[in-house]
Amino acid sequence: MPNNAHKLGVLMLNTHFPRPLGDIGNPGSFAQPVEFLTVPAATPGTVVSREAIAPQVVQGFIDGAQILVERGCELITTSCGFACAIHDELERAIAVPFVSSALNMIPALVGQLGADTPLPVITYDGRVLSKRHFGRFWADNVVIQGIENGQELYPVIKHDRPQLDAHLAEQDVLHSVAQVLEQHPGSQAIVFECTNLPPYRQAVEKRFGLPVYDIFSALASVSAERRHAATTL
User: Fold this and answer.
1) Residue 174: how many other CB atoms lie within 10 Å
2) Is the pLDDT confidence value at 4 over 50?
3) How does strand 142-146 pair with strand 119-123?
4) Using DSSP, how many helices (H) and how many strands (E) does the chain show?
5) How many separate domains does the chain show?
6) First and final CA of the chain: distance in angstroms?
């Protein structure tokens, strides 16, 4: 997980399901100071949607981001990759760097891997995530694979259940990755849209031998850019 001196602010969806180590909602996932702020109107139902996020929910994110900045946070992120759909609105509303989602890394990854190389994106719900959610971060070589057919992780998140079987959740993720790699054998990397997937990143990398990029990768990338900029002033 990223180890940076600046304080991170995390805009959390209003949920109560378990957050194992590696999940963005677990304070132990971070080596630097972190502050969490729940956006009351933001739930999986109001954010993970085929429709545009409602204005009042967007405003809740903006208000929360501004509060976190006032409290000294120097980098803001969210607990749901679908927030990429409102990236520009939130970025304009605050004066510090903003990472809405691991999807922010797509253009850089396409630049590294090539526009003809399939880039699997593992998402909470592949039936919902679409080009619209990516906004300016979309690339035509993205292939979307959801975990919605899994037996554990998806229903725990969807129904906000109080218990999670980590082994079964890991199997759900491994199965989804296996499916998309079977369909796109030329893939050279994997992106986790969902911020609840990083606890299973190591298992995926070990099983399939491919690098996985997640919300922590995106945060580390922005932090590295900030450090580089500071040293060149």
Assistant:
1) 17
2) no
3) parallel
4) 9, 8
5) 2
6) 27
Q: Which residues constitute the domain of residue 128?
A: 103-214
203 and 173 share one domain: yes
Q: Which token pair is 212? A: 């996985």
Contacts for 18 with CB less than 8 Å, ≥ 6 apart: 156, 162, 163, 164
- CATH for 150: 3.40.50.1860
Mean pLDDT throughout 105-114? 98
Q: Which two tokens stand for residue 107?
A: 């253009």
Overall average pLDDT of the 1-11 stretch: 74
- Residues 6 or more apart whose CB falls under 8 angstroms from that of 117 comprise 110, 141, 186, 187, 188
How far is CA 1 from each of CA 29, 131, 156, 210, 221, rounded to the nearest angstrom?
A: 6, 28, 24, 18, 12
Dihedral pair phi/psi, residue 112, rounded to 5°: -80, -45
44 shares a domain with 23: yes
Contact 212/205 with Cβ under 8 angstroms? yes
pLDDT in tens, 35-57: 999 999 999 999 999 999 999 99
Residues 208 and 223 in one domain: no
For residue 29, count CB atoms less than 10 angstroms from its CB and return exposed for 0-12, middle for 13-18, buried for 19 or more.
Answer: buried
pLDDT band at residue 141, thresholds of 50, 70 and 90? very high
Tens of pLDDT, residues 185-233: 999 999 999 999 999 999 999 999 999 999 999 999 998 877 656 666 5
For the full predicted model, state whether its pTM sits above 0.85. yes
> Would residue 107 count as lying in a domain?
yes
